[in-house]
């Protein structure tokens, strides 16, 4: 139900370091579990589709 940063980097066609930077600064939606970053698939695909956080939660 999640992607790794490496998987997201490959899907986006960007370097792993770029993906990590975007995850750390909040551009790519992610959660931190211990030392790992995980990207929930549904939030990632909503982000790709340009949906806002409120839209994803069904508020808008």
UniProtKB/TrEMBL annotation:
One Pfam assignment: HTH_17
Domain Helix-turn-helix, chain residue ranges per copy: 3-50
Domain of life: Bacteria
Record's signal peptide: none
The protein, known as: Helix-turn-helix domain-containing protein
Source organism of this protein record: Pseudonocardia kongjuensis
Lineage: Bacteria, Bacillati, Actinomycetota, Actinomycetes, Pseudonocardiales
């Amino acid at each position: 139900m999640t992607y790794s940063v490496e998987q997201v980097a490959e899907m986006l066609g960007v370097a792993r370091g770029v993906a990590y930077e975007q995850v750390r600064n909040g551009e790519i939606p992610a959660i931190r579990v211990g030392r790992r970053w995980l990207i929930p698939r549904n939030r990632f695909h909503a982000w790709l589709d340009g949906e806002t956080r409120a839209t994803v939660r069904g508020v808008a």
